[in-house]
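Every protein is a chain of amino acids, and every chain bends into a shape of its own. Below is the pair of lines this work produces for a single protein:
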Amino acid sequence: MIEDPAAAEVSLAPIRARLLAELSEPGSATMLAAKVGLPRQKINYHLKTLEAHGLVEMVEERRKGNVNERIMRATAASYVISPTALGSLEPDPARSPDQLSASWLLAVAARLVRDVGALISGAAKARQRVATFAIDGEIRFASAADRAAFAEELTRTVTALVSKYHDESAERGRDHRIVVAVHPSMKSAT
C-alpha cells in the first residue's frame, strides 16, 4: 500500500513502474538494463529513487570484477496507491452523501481501499492475517425497474442480516464494515 504522495509519484513513472514489474524476481541494474534497453547507469538512478521510497530493497550484494553488483527486488508483489496519498483531495463519502451517485460509490470504494490497505499493513507487521470476506459477481437486469426492485430487496435482506447479528453490547466484539455495491460492468478489452 503506497500512502506517501512522493512514493506514489515515483511508482507511476512509466520506466519505474516497468522496473517494479521486472523486480518481482530479484535482479541487478545490469540485468534490468538488458531487459528494458536503457544504460545501466540510468537504471541505477531509478533503482536508487525506488529504494529511497521503500519500493525496492537490496537482497544481495555480489562482487563482479571491480564493481559491487546490487541485487534488488520489489518490496511487494503488487502495489495499490492509497487514497490517503491525495491528502485533502481523498474521496470522502460524507462529501457526497447521495447513496445513488457514482461519486458516493467511488468515495466508499476509496475508503475501502484505504482501510483494508491499513489492515493488511498492520497485520503484516504483526505477522497475522486479516479476517475479510467479499462477494463479486455479475447480474444482468432486464429493465431499470428490475434493477430498482433488486436494490430494494437487497437493502431489506442486508438490513435484516445486520439486525440479526449486530450486538452493540458485545464487550469483546469487533466492529466490521459492510460494503455492497452495484454498478454497470466494464467489459474487458481482451
Observations:
- Helices lie at 5-12, 14-22, 29-36, 40-52, 102-125, 144-165.
